[in-house]
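Researcher: Please predict.
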Amino acid sequence: MKYPQPPLQEYRKSGDVFVGGIASHTFIVSTSVDFTRNPPPPLSDEFVIVTKNYQHILSLAFAVNEINENPHILPNVTLGFDIYDSYYNAKWTYQDTMQFTSTPKKLIPNYKCDIQNNLIAVIGGLDPQISHHVATLVDIYKIPQLIYGSAPLMNDKTPSLPFYKIAPSETLQNVGILRLLLHFNWIWIGVIYVDDDNGERFVQSAVELFPQHGICISFIEKSPKSSVVSDTAEKLQHGTKILDKIRESSANVYLVYGESYSFTYLRWLPQLSELENTPWMGKVWILAAQIELNAFVYQRNWGPDIIHGALSFSVHSSDHPGFQQFVASRSPSRIEGDGFMRDFWQQAFGCTFPNPMLNDITGDICTGTEKLESLPGPFFEMSMTGHSDSIYNAVYAIAHALQDMSSSKRKHREDAHERPLKHQIKELWQLHHFLRGVSFNNSAGDKVSFDQKGELIAGLDIVNWIVSSNQSFHRVKVGRMDPHVPLDQAFTIDENAITWDPFFNQTRPLSVCTKSCYPGSSKTMKEGEPFCCYDCTLCPEGKISDQKDMNDCKKCADKQYPNEKRNVCVPKDITFLSYEEPLGGILAGFALSFSLITALILGTFLKHHTTPIVKANNQSLTYTLLISLLFCFLCALLFIGPPKQVACLLRQTAFGIIFSVAVSCVLAKTLTVILAFMATKPGSRMRKWVGRRFAHFVVLSCSLIQAGICAVWLASSPPFPDVDVHSTAKEIILECNEGSLAMFYCVLGYMGFLAVISFIVAFLARKLPDRFNESKFITFSMLVFCSVWLSFVPAYLSIKGKYVVAVEIFSMLASSGGLLGCIFFPKCYIILLKPELNNKNHMIRKTS
């Protein structure tokens, strides 16, 4: 049976035992197969090489050379390798894997006639789908497979099957991505992932958990997976769709989870933006560990500016001694057996090797003396990359496991010296047991070992990519995910070491749907939008927010109030109407002044008590009225100053009783005048009611009723000192609580009732002769009194704090002053300024 199609590229080195390698180096660009004829083998012109991945091949070869030159590892055993390319498709991957278990150049499954073709393990592949294709076959033979890229989803696999992941855990990476976003408060991001099973798993296991940690997704977009079919137009169309999503989004941070070559598609975005004559705005890219910064040949002149400032989770890599010298020594004219080099060399350097079959060769001629170190970073790197480091460690893990197995057999077999390792091939399936327990330090001092799941116990570096002026780039390690500590402590980062895209002017980029709601406001969700998108609303009256992005404002304590910015609670001022403040001092001054005036009027009346104007209208009622008015004015002083128990008890009750006495006196004086004139009529029966007893009875009975109301008030629910913390926003008011508002309004209502009766009676007696009665003046004084207290009620109910007390004092002074002025000022005018009118003859003449 002939080989159906010879390997397009192969790199082979013979040995007693060999390691198989599946590289991901070349894409084959072709048209779709119609299955109507046998497709011809692809030509090298159809190769699109990911030149950077050539280092993966060199890393495997370098590790094998080191082991063969090291007398302490696998002595007397030569390690070889056989490397094929997967070409990123299933056909070639299956064919190459079957070739590992067959005689070279003869693809006959399960048949092998070459005793030196002893496969001990397979390393590969880079992408999960390729690894799955390899695993499908090597599982049959129990051959260990070490995957250096993303592990495939193999739900049907059991722990006993050969499967080892030489790259760090996906869980460690997912936690690292989450911690990175939270560290920089990037809560509004876009997500781009490759359209395969691993991409879907990443979205389900990591991205869908982001909202639980306060991170919103602006959009989630799939990136097309590459194939051998030429579908560039479709990919560009999809790239335009992603570009439109980025333009429409306000996010500045984008998470990319994809294949190793996904960066080549990201590099299209600035080009598409330029084609549409729109400027490319700087973004922060967060790249998953499997993505390498590479480029296709047609992107040779494209600058890598898009990656400037990006943050990448990278497989930890170290500089192994001699690797760069090994790479620098590579040349097509000196190295034999490397079937990958010529195609790599031509595409990496943009030249063509002479072909005697072709007469005309366009372009530059490859001399073979070109220097690999001159290549730009996206095409090739001299220092070992993360994936190359994983391959290097995989080779050493196989060698150490093989040596441990050999040592173990020597201990249990007496004839081991007669059966060297190369003759124990039939038992190499037992290598799994030793691979699981392998543990060693590589040449860079890094420890290599597997956990119970067959995953390498290794950390991840967080790398900041910086583009230089010559369009090359280099890595700066700015953080790490440490696998040897708890996950919540594994993340570390040095923010000061990060260089951001110039668009952000070297300040920490923001990536939020809505800028922070500053203290003094709270978030208001937008209907139909993610929870990261909201409006900022000023805190309502009486509430504050003292932190950014609070969901709701909170109330201050009872003894505090919000400041003007509504971001801090300020202690309230304790306030009451005091003598020290202007308002209290003025009211106290008026009260004392009116009291002094009342005392002077009383003195004047006492001095002129024999004059007709004093004797008229019941002299004793006049003195009682003046004394009650004097006490009314002095009662106002009880309302000024800090509320005390005694003051609170006396304020309303004393004023109510004293003022009732005053109004009762006015009523008695008016009734006395009316009865006196009615008694002068012939045959009138009113004469028996005229006299001091009737007046005293009116005053006493009316006053006792008010006193009774006040007694019930004090007995049932007396006033008491209280603290009001709610009426005003900025003050704690010390006040007298009325105890029972109903009783308070009863006292006021009764005074109003007396005033109304006095007003009606005085109004009816207003036409009696002026010289003998005060009805006109009493009418006017009662009109003033009623007006003041009618105005007091709405004012009392509408204002707060110490101004309630001030209004009450003003009402007391105004109504009492109205009585004093309207009734007694005209009489004082006659007594003091017109004494000639204050005689009996004059009064008799006026009345007659």
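Model: The chain has a mean pLDDT of 83.
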